[in-house]
Fold this sequence. Notes:
Blueprint: H1 8-13, E1 18-19, E2 22-23, H2 28-33, H3 43-55, H4 60-80, H5 85-112
Antiparallel strand pairs: 1-2
Amino acid sequence: xxxxxxxxxxxxxxxxxxxxxxxxxxxxxxxxxxxxxxxxxxxxxxxxxxxxxxxxxxxxxxxxxxxxxxxxxxxxxxxxxxxxxxxxxxxxxxxxxxxxxxxxxxxxxxxxxxxxxxx
Length: 119
């Protein structure tokens, strides 16, 4: 079920492709990042993990490697599903926007030193 606050353009931009009940298509990207999903978005656990890495004095390089791994996985997902080149570019632009918001959010939580904060 989609939250009422999700932007309809995002719904059109990232089609849902399911394998049984598991989402396997580009819709995984907004499910992971979009703040409309609140505490149900997938990045909550990754965000907590990266903040915990900072608290355990992991290097910034290690935290960026983990974040970049997720970014690359989603880039591959976009490339995997055929669509118009213009739409593919818009999907990648939105992924970049989601990643920047995520990095800003994590940086703020690291500065506050709170891995448990949900929002």
